[in-house]
Amino acid sequence: MLNFFKKLSFENLKKIILEIIKRMPLSALMSLSAFGVMVTLITEENLSMDVENNLVKLLITFIILFFLSIALYVFSESKKHDHKKKWQVQIFTLLYGALFFYFFEENLTTNLEQETAVYLAMTVVGIVCFLFVSRFIKKYFVKIKEPASFYISSFELVLRFGMAWIVGMATMLLGFAALAALFALFDLDFLKEDKMFGYWASFSALFMAPMYLLAEFPKTRKIKVDKLEIIVKDKFYSFLVNYVALPAIYIYFTILYAYTIKVLLHFREWPQGEVAWLVILFSFFGYIVYFASSVFEKKYKHAEFFRKIFPASVVLQTFMLFYAIGLRINQYDLTINRYLVVIFGLWLLVLSVYYIVSKKKDLSIIFSSLFVVVIVFSIGPWSVYLLPEHRQLKTLESNLVKAGIMKVDKSIVSLDDYDDVDDELSGEIYGGIEYLCNAHGCEILDKFFASEIEELKRKDKEDWEKNKQAELEEAENRKNVDEEWVKRIKEREYNEMSSWAIIRGLTEKIKVRAYSSPTLRNDFAREIYFYTEDKDLLDGFRVRDYDYITVLKTDNDLRYEKEDPEKKEFKIGYSTIIDVAREKLELYYGDGLIETFDISESVIAPLLAKKEKQEDDMYGQIRVPLS
């Protein structure tokens, strides 16, 4: 790192940049392009949803291609390709980038799902894995004569990545300190503070750190295997692997096996879905430690023992993984999350079986196999996004036909009442609409509900414009007109309907609802809402022995509160009332009794039925005034 900064004199800066461009021009271009896209996202505040989604997709694509292009340059250097051949090899980078952009998620900024973030992380890791093996590729296969050379090469790469991260973070933090001082000491109203911090963070992470990595990236040369002894003797590295990482893996797998025993002892209790991702994440970390501990195998007995038992322990845990995810696929078909679990679960299983049966136990298999998995499942009709999308669309269509909502000619006919369709089937239709809208974007539902969604959006925009006009007229007709308020109302722009609003509007129109068993829906899933116009009764409500009356948090009520802050609503779950089987409900404010309600089943049940009949509301909301 010090050598790099010594070179950063004005006379050498140009030389460093020219060396980077000469050695890895496409990588430098990807870094610069990613920085440019990020600056655009920060600068432009009124981008349409489609443009913003595409820019974010472009940013992610450039970041992934940055690492892929470096790996291919390293491959070319190992083969001693000439300038023309290097560019021919880089065609794969551009081709993969185009395919990745095409097949990647369309619904990024609207509703970033957790599985998308996990998939992105694994994709970046998979592409970076190619960096570790690219110099060892011989005729399209990774062939390593000396395992020590691969370990030393990987160790050097990790150091370079670590130093690049430190440079990026140091640059970012030092810049933040300088900007904070400038804005604190000088009047810089012509600059937008939040944007300046965003620009500097983007420069540090997407340009400075990558440029450092390119400048200091190790040259392809013959590796001196005697360096391995230096690595083994490094006290910090040895302590980190043997006394931090290894104990952590033992603790993680102890937790997983304790949970496995719990499930086996109570076999009717299905394993939680989260256990699948825990198995994957802990096992992935375990294989990093498996790789790192290989040089300590002869020196430390516990490292040797770990390397013997770890692959087998992963194989046993993959059975729990596939059992947990299989239950959910059987219930709700394939989703992005479940597909990712299956893909990486199979990768772990195959990798573990290889290390159990193989005598060679090639460490590069960890890196090369993950790269292949990421490349294969990120593009094509079997990709992480297209296959679940296709299956869910097919399942939704089948369920719509079963419910009588979709006719032979593909036209949509809304049900007259929620009870016109089986509760479970209704829930499956609701879940399919919700998943597709959240995971793939509500535009995907145009295949079935184009006219219905168009009508929802038209009505939503009309209502918004009417409300804006009414609010503007009210502001302009006041005795003391607040010009600034009027100006803000006029400048207010319409935002497209959220995914949640489209899901709610569409499911209400066709009369389907989220599934819960009849017992839960009839006895537990009920809410009573208390409301008051007394502004002194805004906080501190409680029911004797219970402290969870909360302010109602819906968009409508938030708008209502802004217009009339004296009105607040509070709710308490009807489930608790049923559970405790009380006849009366006592509502307190502090220590004072505010109201007593008759909550006997004979009183509540008819009100719930009446409410459901009037509004088809599965929650049977009852509004009770507070005195």
Task: Give the helices and strands, then pairings.
Elements: H1 2-6, H2 10-23, H3 25-43, H4 49-78, H5 83-89, H6 91-103, H7 114-133, E1 137-138, E2 141-142, H8 147-185, H9 193-215, H10 227-233, H11 235-265, H12 274-292, H13 301-332, H14 336-357, H15 364-378, H16 386-403, H17 423-440, H18 446-476, H19 483-491, H20 499-510, H21 518-523, E3 527-532, E4 541-543, E5 550-551, H22 555-563, E6 568-573, H23 574-580, E7 584-589, E8 592-598, H24 601-615, E9 622-625
Parallel strand pairs: 3-9
Antiparallel strand pairs: 1-2, 3-6, 4-7, 5-6, 7-8
Can you offer a commentary on this structure?
Helix content is 67%, strand content 6%. The longest helix has 39 residues, at 147-185. The protein folds into four domains: 2-112 and 144-222, no CATH class; 234-384, no CATH class; 402-510, no CATH class; 518-625, no CATH class. A hairpin with a 2-residue loop joins strand 1 and strand 2. Residues 517-582 and 610-627 have low confidence and may be disordered. It has helices spanning 2-6, 10-23, 25-43, 49-78, 83-89, 91-103, 114-133, 147-185, 193-215, 227-233, 235-265, 274-292, 301-332, 336-357, 364-378, 386-403, 423-440, 446-476, 483-491, 499-510, 518-523, 555-563, 574-580, 601-615; strands spanning 137-138, 141-142, 527-532, 541-543, 550-551, 568-573, 584-589, 592-598, 622-625. The strands form three sheets. A four-stranded mixed sheet has the order 5-6-3-9. Strands 4-7-8 form a three-stranded antiparallel sheet, with no helix packed on it. Helix 18 (446-476) packs antiparallel against helix 19 (483-491). It is α+β, with helices and mostly antiparallel strands and 627 residues long.
